[in-house]
Amino acid sequence: MIMETGANIDLERVLMQEQLVQQPLKEVQIRKRMRIMVAIDESDGSFYALKWALDHLVDGITPTNVPSQEESSLITLVHVQQPFQHSVIPAGPGGAAFYATPSIVESVREAQAENDAALLSRALQMCKDKMIKAESLILEGEPKDKICQATEQMQVDLLVLGSRGLGKIKRAFLGSVSDYCAHHAKCPVLIVKPPKEITKETSSKSKEWNADK
Fold it and tell me: Where does the chain cross the membrane (predicted)?
């Protein structure tokens, strides 16, 4: 009887230990289902931010032992297009302005839609290459406002943004989507600073574009 009682006590201890081990594992699995939103635009910095998130964050949040029907998208790729100002279009420096015809407006919208689709297709492929489930979202409006609204509506756990590498003066005058979101988003915000070579490449592209104008 004593041996049996001792065995029962040991069994109870084992069961208690298993419960203590299982409880933290459940908590870890819940944390692993964190929803991440990554803002995507035309800049190399935004794609570098996505790559950084896939390389450094996803390994720690990929859900394990979760039924497929209960899985939610781990990463939401959001792209915000600014409304097309179609009322007046300047013809050029010193030139007269003119009203955009419906055909011009439609042409611009189609080009914009193709560009948006290409951006998100590239981003989705990056996620697919890492075997990470992702969804895309296209919004229209002021990027900084729409991104903050989306994080709140979708109950995002972490917002990841790229940095365009603006200087202090430009940032003071032009502002920054990443700076705005860092102060106004209702969730933690991670701003990924690009390497110097990406910043230089983006800067050179901007100078070339201004020279062409």
Answer: none
